[in-house]
Write a structure and sequence with these properties.
binds 6-O-phosphono-beta-D-fructofuranose, mainly beta, six-stranded mixed β-sheet, globular, about 240 residues, about 35% strand, Jelly Rolls
Length: about 240
């Protein structure tokens, strides 16, 4: 069982994203049609080091996942996740946030904010091992591995929602594709803003620092309340949404 992940002495089996799960969102459709249905990336969900951690994580409405994206090319496009948005928090007009940390390799996080049918902000954050990347409410997100090395990343997220894939599928991918020649605007989006490049940041207000293993916040999960009740913690997102 070569795909199992050992986390805290527990073995986890992944959900596997196959190439042809991504048919709508791959840039080079001609290349895609000639390809076998290979495994692209591995999603290990709801991890914990022990039962007591798991109880705390569930009580706080959270989930800790690890995703492994081996290096690959999708024709002349770098391997990436399918991409999704999050639904609104019940009773709010704000959607759930998510927090990533690169554990190994390098990630390019593409975040895009939709307002109705338009994308009004596109952010790219390039992150290396230890770096944190926050997905604010309202932003869809895609992770791209351009590094030629295995990318292993973790995320904390609210456990009570299902991701929304259709808005990205129906426009054949994110607002930009990352090709060997650089970022290419997706023509199906019409007008999109230029990319804002941001650096990975610390979030001292939540006790989160690049370089510190973010799983350890399991001992103080109230600090992640911004993932479950983003409406109560808008300051933390402001550094990214209006720098
Ligand atoms: O759902 P996608 O777009 O394939 O992206 C996968 C990622 O999303 C998550 O489900 C969390 O948003 C992770 O488990 C995984 O990293």
């Amino acid at each position: 069982m070569g795909n199992e992940l050992n986390f805290g002495g527990n073995l986890y089996r992944p959900d596997i994203r196959m190439l042809h799960d991504m048919d709508e969102v791959v840039y080079n459709q001609e290349w895609l049609r000639s390809q076998e249905n290979i495994e692209l990336y591995y999603m290990y969900r709801d991890l914990s080091r022990n039962e007591s951690d798991h109880k705390k994580i569930v009580e706080h409405g959270l989930r800790y996942d690890i995703t492994i994206i081996p290096p690959a090319m999708l024709g002349d496009e770098y391997v990436k996740t399918a991409g999704h948005y999050h639904p609104p928090v019940p009773g709010q007009d704000l959607s759930y946030a998510e927090l990533y940390q690169v554990l190994e390799g390098e990630a390019t996080y593409l975040l895009q904010k939709a307002e109705g049918d338009r994308v009004v902000d596109v952010i790219v954050c390039e992150a290396k091992a230890g770096d944190l990347a926050l997905v604010p409410p309202g932003y869809g997100h895609i992770t791209i591995n351009t590094s030629g090395k295995r990318l292993k990343m973790a995320n904390w997220v609210c456990r009570d929602f299902a991701s929304l894939y259709d808005p990205i599928k129906k426009l054949f991918g994110g607002a930009y594709y990352l090709l060997t020649g650089g970022f290419e605007k997706n023509p199906d989006y019409g007008e999109v803003p230029d990319i804002r490049f941001i650096k990975p940041m610390d979030y001292p207000e939540a006790g989160l620092f690049c370089g510190n293993d973010m799983y350890e916040i399991v001992n103080d999960l109230n600090k992640l309340d911004f993932l479950v009740h983003p409406q109560d913690h808008m300051d933390i997102f402001g550094k990214i949404t209006s720098p």
